[in-house]
Amino acid sequence: MSTRTVLVIGAGKSTSQLVNYLLDKSQKENLKIIVGDISLENAQKLVNKHPNGNAISLDVFNEQQRTQAIDNATIVISMLPARFHIEVARDCVKLGKSMVTASYISKEMQALDKEVKEKGLVFMNEIGLDPGIDHMSAMQVLDRIRDNGGKMLLFESFTGGLVAPESDTNLWNYKFTWNPRNVVLAGQGGAAEFIQEGTYKYIPYQRLFRRTEFLEVEGYGRFEGYANRNSLKYRSVYGLDDIPTLYRGTLRRVGFSKAWHIFVMMGMTDDSYNLQETETMSYRDFVNLFLPYSPTDSVELKLRHHVKIDQDDLLWDKLLELDIFNPYKKLGLTNATPAQCLQRILEDKWTLAPNDKDMIVMYHKFGYEINGQRKQIDATMVNIGEDQIETAMARTVGLPVAMATLRILNGEITTPGVQLPISKEVYEPILKELEDYGITFKEYDVPYLSYNPHSTGG
Amino acid sequence: MSTRTVLVIGAGKSTSQLVNYLLDKSQKENLKIIVGDISLENAQKLVNKHPNGNAISLDVFNEQQRTQAIDNATIVISMLPARFHIEVARDCVKLGKSMVTASYISKEMQALDKEVKEKGLVFMNEIGLDPGIDHMSAMQVLDRIRDNGGKMLLFESFTGGLVAPESDTNLWNYKFTWNPRNVVLAGQGGAAEFIQEGTYKYIPYQRLFRRTEFLEVEGYGRFEGYANRNSLKYRSVYGLDDIPTLYRGTLRRVGFSKAWHIFVMMGMTDDSYNLQETETMSYRDFVNLFLPYSPTDSVELKLRHHVKIDQDDLLWDKLLELDIFNPYKKLGLTNATPAQCLQRILEDKWTLAPNDKDMIVMYHKFGYEINGQRKQIDATMVNIGEDQIETAMARTVGLPVAMATLRILNGEITTPGVQLPISKEVYEPILKELEDYGITFKEYDVPYLSYNPHSTGG
Predict the structure, then answer these.
(1) Which of B188, B291, B305, B341 to mutate to test the interface with A (most CBs of A within 10 A)?
(2) Are residues B252 and B358 in the same domain?
(3) Which residue of A has its CA nearest to B271?
(4) Stated pTM of the model
(5) Residues of B in contact with A289 (CB under 8 A)
(6) What ipTM was estimated for this complex?
(7) A137 and A247 co-located in one domain
(8) Residue A424 lies inside a defined structural domain of this protein
(9) Which end of chain A is least crowded, N or C, by CB within 10 Å?
């Protein structure tokens, strides 16, 4: 077997375990791993002088550099921010290389499908955590139910990137384990859309964090889920066109959303305009921007009154913990948006400490009818990181990407085109191998979650 | 005096009294009025066979038609939707014609300023009601206070297009007297920004209709105002760069905003996405889209619970009056946005009856310091329409446009460039003449509205 060269573009947070996995297999599988990043230093850190690895400086917008690196590769993994994949993808088509990403398939990427198929290449996307493990673990159970003759009635799926119980030290039960900006902006850009018992439902951003549902995970207690924008996106892809209930959500610990709703109501998560004088603005002054003027009343009482927080409501302590009423702490940001200011304040308290661990939680509900009976399977996955490098997030995003890459190289995943991991050929072996890395789902037979007891007669 | 030709482009609602004014003066002033509209019929209606008028068919996107009509004119009035002015404006520059509009100065329009000045032309904009009469009436008082040595401390300005008391027959005390779509979308597109006692304040859309203030107008009772998006837009234009309090708002009758807030919270004013199956959807089903699913609970109770409307809250009757829970009335719109559906429902109840009259209300507050004393002038204007053609809106928008046009023709308004009506040369004669048409302001000396009693010592 001749040496196969894997080009990994982008040496960000989520790439470390992906590269480790490939380097660990490199001897046996005859792999050479080239890690290319705009920062040579970052790429070198990941390769860590491994004999089968090589770090290169790679600017994805330098066409010559990019084309040459791709031309030298057998297969390409792009771990760049999603909007940059298309540059790489176009070269891969041209140069006849298969490609793997953990990102949602963009319109531009989808448009390459015909050419990719014609050249017999595999462009596997959405094979990280969410999207990725959610697709695979859901399709595995959906296919099994349907193969047994079941008819799907309900599918709900929730994922959360959270902090591990042993590192859960604040009142929000939350720390930034991923891009803080995405957390602050979560849910913006359109109403959440889903379908429940055959009825379309829409939740506008201003109600999103008040329309949560609770979920229990064995051994980990209670979580809450709020709706994702795009619950109906995979209806056809999953073969669920006629399903009466379809809902996708994001998990937080109980109480997070109700407190976060305060920021939404106040307008502090708005990223659409810039404030004045945020360089020298105190946290307290920032809060006061969004409250009526008063020469005498305190910012605290104005906030309590404005968003109706009772004297004995514990969510008040969540706000105090963030020190948002501090008149001395300065934002230190130039003409920032409200969202950027809020992020700055949250980073004081929600940044992982050196020994903190993160936690991924995934929860699927599958309601179905078989032989005239209504049943439900709940499936849960919890994964806890080792440290701040080997995070659960980097592991669950990076490992499926690496595993898919190796299987494409080895001719085990062969269906050509712009793909996502919903066929047995892909999800069966990868979910199996993920178990070796502690990424496992527990399944529970539970009573069917009936939103409509009358129509079910029970 | 040779005949002067006035070209009026656009024969919409607000153009009728403008054209009447010019036709009435045509004999004495030696005017010929050409009304051009894409609908010849609409143009003919306005001209009404007047010997000094002429109706033409004019498509503003037909370059030849447009250029020729402008070339034949002495001066051009554009009453088109604001985004179409620029086509006319570029021709006017090229062909050396002055121009008048009632719209906000766009960036593209402003960019013509240098050329317009070089050619010695007057492009008078923002000379309708709001913008227009608001600028003129505010500047008149501001200039007077400052000419007398006063220092401005506060300027607040409110305008509302409402229904006249004798036609005020519903619980919302509101009917559509202008473009309903603009009413449904009011306040969207960014936080409202203003300054109060030297402190910047921001109100996000989701709180806009809960941060109102009350205003009394002698003989007309109480109104409420909510903040406009752009309160700071005219700070420099009005010479108020250092003013501690500057606020612009929209007027409604008391209670409107609190009830409207329900629609905002529910997501019914969202215009950013399209719903499914709105053709056959009932009003009741539309409301239910935004409420949690329940097989048993009524849409009524779910709404009450979701947005916390008490059993004895009168705003409930406002909702019932709109018949929003009717399961039989269908929307009849194809894949409409929530905002379009809401507009459809409101049009049932808020459309003016044949004999209904509209009402314009404007309210300015001027706080200032003079000789060590703090004082305040409040100025109010109320104008009531005659019928559905001669509305207060058409009168207050159209007459200032017509008056400015005649004064430019007669060399009384001469300052060249892209202008708005803030100089004495413009506002003094026009405000004076508007009085002949019943558009008058009442001024009241009132105690200074102190938001900050401690710093004022009182």
Answers:
(1) B291
(2) yes
(3) A190
(4) 0.88
(5) 199-202
(6) 0.81
(7) yes
(8) no
(9) N
